[in-house]
UniProtKB/TrEMBL annotation:
Residues given in the record as Zn(2+) binding sites: H269, H333
EC number: 4.1.99.17
Protein name: Phosphomethylpyrimidine synthase
Catalytic class of the enzyme: lyase
Organism: Halanaerobium saccharolyticum
Cofactors (names): [4Fe-4S] cluster
GO CC term, one of those recorded: cytosol
Similarity comment text for this entry: Belongs to the ThiC family.
Cofactor note: Binds 1 [4Fe-4S] cluster per subunit. The cluster is coordinated with 3 cysteines and an exchangeable S-adenosyl-L-methionine.
Matching InterPro entries: ThiC, ThiC/Bza_core_dom, ThiC/BzaA/B
Residues reported in the UniProt entry to bind [4Fe-4S] cluster: C411, C414, C418
Pathway membership: Cofactor biosynthesis; thiamine diphosphate biosynthesis
Gene (UniProt): thiC
GO BP, sorted A to Z: thiamine biosynthetic process; thiamine diphosphate biosynthetic process
Keyword Ribonucleoprotein belongs to the record: no
Length: 428
C-alpha cells in the first residue's frame, strides 16, 4: 500500500508522523493533504534508513541537490562526498543523475548512505546501457526502459523523474514554435529522438498504467518531468511548454486514481514577470499537486553565478506556491559541479526557500529571523553563527575579516563606531 492508500483509510503512518514533527504541525494535517494529493512523502518501502520528508501545500519549501557521475568524471567517492556536503548544507532530498560506467554501483552506495529521499531519472541508465551495447539511443527497447525502472524501484529509489507528458502531439507544437534552444532536458531529448526516429508514441505515456503499477508496489513517488521546459527566456511560456503541462495535469488525475503519489516538475528559464503566472497555471491545471521547479533562472547571461539567478527565481516561484526547489550550482551551463559548487548551490536554494516561507507565512519562518535580529542586537556572535543558514561560512568569514579587530564585540566595518554598541553604551 502507498501513503495515499493508507491516508484515504484514515491511517497516520510512521512517515507522516516523522514528517509532521519536522514541520511542527499535526500528523493529521499531513494525512489529509496526502489523501487529497496536495502533499507527497517520497518513501520507498525498501529505503530502510530514510528520514521521511513531506513536500507540498502548507509545508516548508524543500530543496533538492543533484549530483552523479559522468563519462568524463566517474569517481564514486567524489559523489558520496557531494552527498555528504549537500545534506550537511541542508538539502532535503538528492537526485543521482549518473551517466558514468558505475551507475548501479553509485546508486547503491548513495541509497545506503542517504537518509534523505533519493530520486533518479531511469531513462539515463537505459540510454547509457543501450549505447554501451553498441546501439544508438534511437534503438532503445521499451522493455529495457521498464526493466530499469523496476530495478531502481526495487533497490529503494524514493522518486523517479519520468517525462510522461512528452507526446507526439506535443512534439508537433514544439516544431511549430521555432524555439531558440529547442529541448534542454536530457531525458526529454532521449525520448524525443526515439519517438521521432521510430514514429512511435512515448512509451512512458503509452504504458503509463504499467508505470503506475510498478510505483504502487513499493510506494515510489512519480515526479512528472517537464521535457519541454524552457532553456532560455526566449522560449518561456510557449505553446509547447503549456501543451505538455496540460498532458501532465491529466496524468496527475490518473496517478491519484491509482493511489500513487505524484508531483509535477516545472521550468526552467523564465523572465521574472512570468514566474507567478507559471506557478498559478500549474497549480490550477494539476489540481494543486506539489510543484518541483528547477530555479527558475531569471536571466540567461549569468554563467558562473547561476546559483544566484536561480535563487532570485526560486524565491518568486516558492512565494507563488512552488513547493520544492531543485538547486542550481555556479557550474550550471559550465560543467559537472564540484563539492564547493554543491555547497554553494544548496545554500543559495535554502536562502530562496526560507525567504519564500516568510512570504507564505509558513509556521516558524519569521521567528528564526527575529531570533537572529535579537542576537545581532546583543552582538552575540556565537548565537548568530548558531542561527545562520551557513554557520561554518559565517564563523570562517568573521575570523578572516576581523583579524585586526580591536573590539571583540564589533566588526571591522564599524569598530568602535558600531551603531548598536554606541546605543547600548548610552543605555547602561
Amino acid at each position: 500500500m502507498t501513503q495515499v492508500t493508507r491516508a484515504k483509510k484514515g491511517e497516520i503512518t510512521a512517515e507522516m508522523k516523522q514528517a509532521a514533527d519536522k514541520e511542527s504541525i499535526s500528523a493529521e494535517f499531513i494525512r489529509k493533504q496526502i489523501a487529497e494529493g496536495k502533499v507527497v512523502i517520497p518513501a520507498n518501502v525498501n529505503h530502510r534508513n530514510l528520514n521521511a520528508v513531506a513536500f507540498g501545500k502548507g509545508l516548508k519549501t524543500k530543496v533538492n541537490a543533484n549530483f552523479g557521475t559522468s563519462e568524463d568524471y566517474d569517481q564514486l567517492e567524489n559523489e558520496l562526498e557531494k552527498l555528504k556536503a549537500a545534506v550537511a548544507a541542508g538539502a532535503d532530498a538528492v537526485m543521482d543523475l549518473s551517466t558514468g560506467d558505475k551507475i548501479e554501483e553509485t546508486r547503491e552506495a548513495i541509497l545506503k548512505k542517504a537518509e534523505v529521499p533519493v530520486g533518479t531519472v531511469p531513462i539515463y541508465q537505459t540510454a547509457v546501457e543501450t549505447v554501451k551495447s553498441g546501439r544508438g539511443i534511437i534503438e532503445m527497447e521499451v522493455e529495457k526502459l521498464f526493466e530499469v525502472i523496476e530495478k531502481q524501484v526495487e533497490e529503494g529509489v524514493d522518486f523517479i523523474t519520468v517525462h510522461c507528458g512528452l507526446t507526439l502531439e506535443t512534439l508537433r507544437h514544439l516544431a511549430a514554435e521555432g524555439r531558440v534552444t529547442d529541448i534542454v532536458s536530457r531525458g526529454g531529448s532521449f525520448l524525443a529522438a526515439w519517438m521521432l526516429h521510430n514514429n512511435q508514441e512515448n512509451p512512458l505515456y503509452e504504458y503509463y498504467d504499467r508505470l503506475l503499477e510498478i510505483c504502487y508496489k513499493k510506494d515510489v513517488t512519480l515526479s512528472l518531468g517537464d521535457a519541454l521546459r524552457p532553456g532560455s527566456l526566449a522560449d518561456a511560456t510557449d505553446r509547447a511548454q503549456i501543451h505538455e503541462l496540460l498532458v501532465l495535469g491529466e496524468l496527475v488525475d490518473r496517478a491519484r486514481e491509482a493511489e500513487v503519489q505524484v508531483m509535477v516538475e516545472g521550468p526552467g528559464h523564465l523572465p521574472y514577470d512570468q514566474i507567478e503566472t507559471n506557478i498559478r497555471l500549474q497549480k490550477e491545471l494539476c489540481k494543486e499537486a506539489p510543484f518541483y521547479v528547477l530555479g527558475p533562472l531569471v536571466t540567461d547571461i549569468a554563467a558562473g553565478y547561476d546559483h544566484i539567478t536561480a535563487a532570485i527565481g526560486g524565491t518568486a516561484a516558492a512565494a507563488a506556491g512552488a513547493d520544492f526547489l531543485c538547486y542550481v550550482t555556479p557550474a550550471e551551463h559550465i560543467g559537472l559541479p564540484d563539492i564547493e559548487d554543491v555547497k554553494e548551490g544548496v545554500i543559495a536554494s535554502k536562502i530562496a526557500a526560507h525567504a519564500a516561507d516568510i512570504a507564505k507565512g509558513v509556521k516558524g519562518a519569521k521567528e528564526k529571523d527575529r531570533k537572529m535580529a535579537a542576537a545581532r542586537k546583543k552582538l552575540d556572535w556565537e548565537r548568530q553563527i548558531e542561527l545562520a543558514l551557513a554557520p561554518d561560512k559565517l564563523r570562517e568569514s568573521r575570523k578572516e575579516h576581523n583579524r585586526v579587530l580591536k573590539d571583540e564585540d564589533a566588526c571591522t566595518m564599524c569598530g568602535s563606531f558600531c551603531a548598536m554598541k554606541l546605543v547600548d553604551d548610552q543605555n547602561e
